[in-house]
Amino acid sequence: MNIKEYKILLVDDEKDILNHIKQELLREGFYRVITARTTQEAKTLFMAEKPQLLVLDIMLPDGDGYEILQFARRHADVPVIFLTAKDEDVDKLVGLGLGADDYITKPFLMKELIYRISAILRRAYQFDHQRDFSFQLGEVEIDFSQNLIIKDSQSIGMTATERAILKKLYENKNRVVTKDAIAQTIWGEEMDGNEQSLIMHIRRIRKKIEVHPSEPQHLITIKGIGYKLKV
């Protein structure tokens, strides 16, 4: 399926922003775009329309985007992009353990949002299953064929972005992978402007694969350069 055939649910309480994003997506050929302005409307549309991607504002009149994400993940493993107003929102996403695939800070360029939507849809739905495999990190198993991390006898899902980062690091296991190389894999561009987003994903991956995430033994930061996966 062409990525422009996937259904996208946009949620923002500001009507002008919502309409602008929708019109730009339609102009780019994403013709299955639905919109909601409240948490309740978003939940209802999610169940009725079964979108393949959510683009969520955080602050809504009857709740917030975090609530919508938690609701959606109880029903489907759908990728999510958050529209945030400040970096503190990113810290909250990590602290709550919410698996957003990406976030973009307001104000943003429409071409950047459209690029990220395209990249996430490709990662989520168009990866090559024939190249899937699993590997061990100590007592933790990473299984790309099922999109799962098995830790302490529990199965933990991976977002499309987490999967892409782990796969890139494993393909270069025990070697340093630069931030730019990881960014190229995720966003198709260099690190510029994406460092906070990458840090968010690395934190979440550590929570899933490390026994003590604050003292990582496998996903190691190489200060000023990038990361290394010790296998």
UniProtKB/TrEMBL annotation:
Residues with 4-aspartylphosphate modification: D57
Alphabetical GO biological process terms: regulation of DNA-templated transcription
Residue ranges of DNA binding: 132-231
Annotated ranges, domain Response regulatory: 7-121
Keywords: DNA-binding, Phosphoprotein, Transcription, Transcription regulation, Two-component regulatory system
Span of domain OmpR/PhoB-type: 132-231
A Pfam family assignment: Response_reg
Example of a GO MF term: transcription cis-regulatory region binding
InterPro entries xrefs: CheY-like_superfamily, OmpR/PhoB-type_DNA-bd, Sig_transdc_resp-reg_receiver, WalR-like, WH-like_DNA-bd_sf
GO terms for cellular component: cytosol; protein-DNA complex
Protein name from the UniProt record: DNA-binding response regulator, OmpR family, contains REC and winged-helix (WHTH) domain
Taxonomic path: Bacteria, Bacillati, Bacillota, Erysipelotrichia, Erysipelotrichales
